[in-house]
Amino acid sequence: MDTNGLSGQVAVVTGASSGIGLAVARQLHTLGLRLVLTARSEDRLSRVCSELGAERMVADITDRDVPERLLAVALARFARCDVVINNAGAIEVGPIGSIDIDKVCAMVRVNVEAAYRVAYTFIRHFLRQGYGHVINVSSVLGTKVRPTAGAYAGTKFALEALSEALRMEVAGTQVSVTCIEPGLVLTELHRDWPVHPTAGMNIPHPLMPEDIARCVSFVLAQPRHVKIPRLMIVPAEHQI
Ligand SMILES: NC(=O)c1ccc[n+]([C@@H]2O[C@H](COP(=O)([O-])OP(=O)(O)OC[C@H]3O[C@@H](n4cnc5c(N)ncnc54)[C@H](OP(=O)(O)O)[C@@H]3O)[C@@H](O)[C@H]2O)c1
Description:
This protein is of the alpha/beta class. It is 42% helix and 16% strand.
């Protein structure tokens, strides 16, 4: 793959302790990027940071100063920042009668409030320096809804709306904004579901986190005159 000068660049990855964020971090490391990784799970994050020689920030992404601190760490350690993978996320679904409203609101803080802070913080920096790439991890449910998943879909619709407006604002610059829109990926996101979506949605072969990581590196490897605003990736059996 043409890696378009990616080696030596610096990426910040949120939600890097498991699933998609972890796979993306590993893929970017393979491509020669230097990394700042963040999540709450100290042990897991320490392990992946030692494995990849990455800088570590154990933090809750909903703390209001974390995005600025992440950028500061990247600049202090590596004297540059080229990419942010805005990936940390949570899911809360359920029927009207039983969905936990407090957990829904906690999800909104992670998927919307924190994701917005990360996006604005890094895109301001990228505009100041004249280049950079914001990759927002949205979902197929950033483009459509399902009964019982409206609140989660709403958080991803919100991220899609911000991404599209930011993309328009930075048109003509060397700053890029991309939404990655996965279908079902086998991660820990659904670990508490009584029926796992592989069974509930009859998708016996879900995507693997590495499938999403490969797509992220494809997006980053494009030449400067090419921008990819949205990339949807679905399992072969997914009827959407
Ligand atoms: N799996 C899917 O089918 C699927 C499909 C479409 C989109 N997505 C999106 O993909 C992204 C990654 O999810 P995943 O599937 O890889 O799930 P995952 O394995 O559960 O990973 C979620 C990551 O987000 C971090 N995180 C969650 N809440 C956080 C908080 N308050 N502060 C800091 N970090 C937090 C978690 O780390 P700690 O727990 O260590 O903090 C973890 O690293 C999410 O935005 C999700 O909506 C997933």
